[in-house]
User: What shape does this take?
Amino acid sequence: MEGLGISWSTLIAQIVNFVILFGLLYLVAYKPIMRMLDERSQRVKDSMEQTESIKEQAANAEGEVKKQLEAAGKEGQEVVARAMRTGEEARQKAQQEARQEAEVLIDKARLEIERERDEAIDELRKEFTDLTIEAAGKVIEQSLDKEAHRQLIDKVLEESPTLKKD
Assistant: This one.
């Protein structure tokens, strides 16, 4: 092979140098690079898993927020409904109290009117009795006892169906 310009000793030396260089590179460069690539690959996988986990948590949190919003909406509607019922009850109670107060006032007014009517009738009877006594005294021209006349007129009035007390 020397005719081709290849020397066996140089070829063996280059092959040994290549094997030594390949062994050193394998130990020094290939293993650390592979370890670094494996670590990076693992970090990427961990990041992807963490991202998926965060997405799931975000989806769960969103679902929870929706549930809470729905619950808050329902609770708000219940509060409004209770407030409306309470307002309606208060309005009805106020109307009932107003009716009762009006009835009490009407009853008092009726009693007052009856009392005043009775007083007016009694006053009218007394005046009528006095006028009758005066008229009878003038007609008869004798002086009768006023109290006797009054008793007589009261008796006639009591017996009269039109002037009888109620």
